[in-house]
Each structure stands twice: as C-alpha cells, then as structure tokens.
Request: fold
Amino acid sequence: MPRFSIIVPSHGVAGRLSLALDSVLAQSYGDFELIPVCDSPGSPAADVAADHAGQDSRVAPVNSPPSAGLGGARNTGLRAATGAYVLFLDGDDTLAPGALAALDARLTKTGDVDVLYYEHERTPWWEGEPTNPAAPLLAKTPAGAFSPAQAPQLTGVQLPAWSAVYRRVFLTEHQLAFPEGQFTDLGWGGLVTVAAERVAVLRSVVVRHLLRRQGSRLNLPGEHHHQLLDQVELVLGAAQGLAPERSHALFEQLFAVVLKTASRPERLPSGHRAFFRRAGRLYRSHRPANFRAPGGSLGVQHRLLASGAYTAFKALRGANRKASGAAERVPRPRMLRTRLRYARDLRRSLDPNLAVYCAYWGRGYACSPAAIEAKARQLAPHIRSVFLVEPDAVDAVPKGVEHAVIGSRKYWEVLARAKYLVNNANFAEGVVKRRGSVHVQTQHGTPLKKMGVDQSTYPVVAAATGSFAKLLGRVDRWDYNISSNRHSTQMWERAFPGSYEALEYGYPRNDVYYTATADEVARVRRELGVPDGKTAVLYAPTHRDYQTGFDTGLDLEAFCAAAGEDVVVLLRAHYFYDQGRAKSSGRIIDVTAHRSSEDVCLAADALVTDYSSIMFDYANLDRPIVVYADDWEVYRETRGVYFDLMEAPPGPVARTPEDLAQVFRDGSYAGAESKALRAEFRSRFCEFDDGLAAERVVRRVFLGEPPETVPPVIPLAERVPAPAATLVRS
Reply:
C-alpha cells in the first residue's frame, strides 16, 4: 500500500496537466500513486496522462465524464485510491519541491491523524507576489496533533480540498465523499471538519495554486450560486449536536461565504430575493444557541439576514453596483469625428446578418477568414460579409466580395454593428466587444514556437511583443478559438488564457488541400511560372526575432545546381518581409507576394522549411518535407518552442547546405524513411483537417447548429489529399 494517493482532476486544464503530473513525479519522496482523472479515453488530458503512465508505473489514470463535475472526478479518484493518505491537486497546480517528504515527516511525528492541513501558495497567473492565505489560520493551532475543539477556527470551510491530506480509512469509515453540484470544496471541508477527531497542521507550503486569469468559475454569474445554499444546508445538518465552541465558528464561517455572495448581485442573474430568503431561513433554523454575530458591517448583515429584511440589505449593499461586464470600453479610433461616429454606431442595434472578416491585419483576402467567408456565402447567403483590408490590398480582393478599407468610416460602422467578427490575428485596440456579438479567432498556424504570454520569459521576443495586458484584453473578446489538432488546443489554452470555447474543427484555410483538383494544381503552377516537367521545391523559412531584415539563410542557386537539373525553388519569405514585388531570377521563383500560401503549397512537389508553421499545413498534402535546421539551438533558446522538432520531424533533417542538397540528389527526401516520419507527423498535427473545417464553423457559429450535428472529422486514413504535380503530368 503506497503512503500517498494523489488525485488530479484534469477537466479544462489539459494544457497545463503535464506540469502538475511532472511536479509529482519529480518529488524526492517516491512512495505514492498518482491518479489523473480524465474526461474519457482519447481526450486531450487522457493523452497526457497516458504518456506519463507509459513512462512511470506509479501513474494510474481513471476516467470521469465532465457531467460529473469536479466533485464526481474526485470521487472517482477516491474509489481508485489505495494509499494510506489521500491528497488532491488541481490539474493546473503543482506540488512544491520536497512536499511529499515534508508530509511524510510530519505524519511520522504526529502519528495517525484524520486530517493534516498545510499551507499553500496562491500564485498570480501573471504579475504580483504569491500569497499564503492559510498561514495565519494554521499559525493559531497547537503544535502537535490535537482535537478540533482545541482550534475551533480551523473548520476547513476556509480552505480548499487540496490544502489538506486525509487518512483514507477515516474517509471510508465515515463514508465521506464530495457532494454533488457546485461549491463542493465548501461542502467537503465542512463535512470533514464535523467528522474529524484528531487533526494536525504542517506550517510549510505543499501546493502552489495558479490563479486562473479568468478567475474562479464559481465567481462567474449564474444560477449555480443557488447551489451554495445546498452545500451550507448539508454541512449545517451534519453539524447538529456539535459542541458550541465548534458550531459557533463553523456557523459564522459558512454564513460569511453566504453573505459574500448575497452582497454581489452580479453573481445572481435572477432570484436575489429568493436566495436571501432561503439563506435567512437556514440562518434562523440552524443558528447555535448563544451565537453572537460579529461586529461592524458584517454584523449588520447578519442581523438583516436573520430578520429577513431584504429591502434594507439591498440598500446596504449599494444599489449603484454595476453588473459585472456591463460597462463597455471607450472606443479609441484616432480622429475625433470618427470616434463620435463609432460611439453613435455602438448605440445602434447589432445587425444579426452582418459578418466582418480580417486576415493578417488587413493584408488581403486570405487564410481561414477567407475560407469561412466563401463557405458562408454558400451555406448562409442571408449573411452579409464585409472583408477588411488595407488600401494597398483593395485590388486583390476577389470580385463579388464586399470590402471596407481599414480606418474608413465604413470600417468603423461595420465593426460597431456586426454580430459576427472573424480574424486570424486581432482587431484594432479600440474595437469594442459588444454584448451579443460573436468573435471567432481562427489563428494562422499550429504553434511550434512559443506564443502569447508564453513569450514573456524570452527577452528578445517579449520586447517586440508589446503589452501583454493589451494582448489579453484582445483575447477577452474571443468567443471561439479554432484548432487543427489537440496540441494546438492545449498550447492556445496556455498562451492565450481566456473564457473562449475551443472549436476542434480544423483550419478552414487547409480545406483546399483536400478539395483542389488536378486541374487547379496545374493552373496554380502555370500562374506561378513553374516550368513543365520541373520539380518545384517550396522554400519557406520563418522569421528570426533576433535578426533584422530578411536573409534566405541558404544559397538557393547553389542548392538548385547541387540538387539536380529538374529542381526549381519557390521562395516564400515570412509575410513580415513581403514588399509586394517579386525578386525571381534563374531557377528561383519568388512567390512571397502571392496572396495565397495555400496556392503556393498546392504547386509545390516538396517543402523545405526551418521552423515555420507552414510544415503543419503542408503535411496535409502528404508530400515530402525536409527540415533545414542550421540554427536550431539558437532558435530554440531565443524564441522558445513547445516541442523538440529534431525528435519528431516531418521528414529528413538537414543541418548544412551540403546535407540539404544530398537528400534531393539521392532521392531520400521522398524515400521510405521520409514517408514514415511524415505519417507519424500527420497523425499528430493533421488531426482535424479534412476539407470540412469551414463548413463546421459556418454551421456551428453562423447557423447555430448544435455541436453534435456538424459534420464529424473524417479519419486520416480515409482522406484523399489534392494530387501532386507528378500525378497531374502522368
């Protein structure tokens, strides 16, 4: 029997679950079992847990459906536990180094106790110093093991479930389990307090709790706040007959939580009076004999609650409190006249049939926003679509697509009134997220390099990023965030913490890799100037944050000469370096200015890239990919990456120009080993791309169809990519 069973629910925190599990497995004390509780086999968290289980036999994942909630997940973990003591860890928290050794030493000293409470750090998700809210409470307790009557203020109501370790036999004997519904930590903590006979404390930090940027879900507005009273009633019922010195402290702490909710009307969209009256009935029926209310304003609230004086309580809490999130941000267009017009348009009703799109900060009609716009015209013709572009991109907007020039009067008008706003980057700082509008973030690639707030620890990148606070203000506008694979879903959750819903639908821009015909491939090659019979190698290097200006990083003429007479190179620099004019020469065709990277990929017989996300998109075509990694170590250290590309490449890795030329000269770039690497890469990163992504988005977002009715993802083995040029020629 292990000393400790560590139960880790993981719903909604798959992006950080590996950090939690690693913090346990890295403990110097090893006598434990680790029980991750996942939604279901094959879920993102289950994949993380299974990977850890494959590396360490102490990891034993179990499953609990999301409908069971946090309490149900913990109960599932409890049923699977075999350790002498049980402790809980949220899936986005970590154990402090040496925590288990400290717990073992303390339990050895105190002997068997029912509950051992310990300190925890609450770590701000971004800036600020960690706090230790349990320390003052635990400091007032006796030095050794003690009866709860000796420290009545230690009720467990003020502490989360993961701030204590519990003797498993004690839990079993008293049939203790997490109650159903919300606020289960309060119910659990109260029930444990009532049942415990021998407790102790450890005055050192065991758990480091990461405060979510979105705050606790329990603090969000909703009818679930009525369930708080269910938990209070459950604990008060169990506490009948408790000694007065214990019941007084428990009662006061329970109603401190109740009054905190009652004084925040924004938490209860409806039923304020009903909540208050039920709380008053519980107060009167369970108030211990000789209970004295606290002093000050809180004491006044106690007396108003006891007397059922809702009107007076409402006046006390302040009739002028603004509902959470009701205030709109002040618009900030540059010109005064434009600001006034925008403010006026914000007061007009939303247009339910207006959708606004933008890609790459207005560079043109491109990427996933363009793919969604085209599909919306087909499936939702009642929706008026307006694409936002910079003045120099107007001529490239396809015929029949309505557009608005960024900064114009029309631009601000449609932004103010559109119900749907779709972007692969972010809208301008001054754009207001209106109540009822729907913002869709499509992203523009699968993340290999660090993104969002994950960039903060890389000085070169952070300096160029600007204000992370403003970045996250823009993230707060997102309602949906599109993902093409589970890796992306998890990394976006870390990089862009927000309350949006992840749509694992695939990237709409990648649909064309399964819908394009042989004739379309041939047409694109002609438009780009690829000579008949030539092997077109797309060279697409990414941006280097530590360099200024664009450098190909490779002598392309020399590469062509060494790779073979039939090779031509399609050069596509990062869009940061698009100067709007081609620099083609000899066997080098500059396609940087071509508006569609999808067209360029369709035209290419093979891809050579370094660390660009284009490799993830191109892999959908199941054509050869070669990674040219001459500065991988420098890039990894200065830019930061989410996984080691050298350990899981989509094809051969070349470190020198000679190596690169050789894999083309001897044909290994397209050989059996290259194909095997590509197959593994595709299974991981082309998970949801199947040609139907745009349709899924339109049906779910624009047409309001329920998730279960959108087209399911076609299995990878059943997908047929667009034909390569070699097949076109044959």
Summary: Confidence is low (pLDDT under 50) at residues 319-330, 576-582.
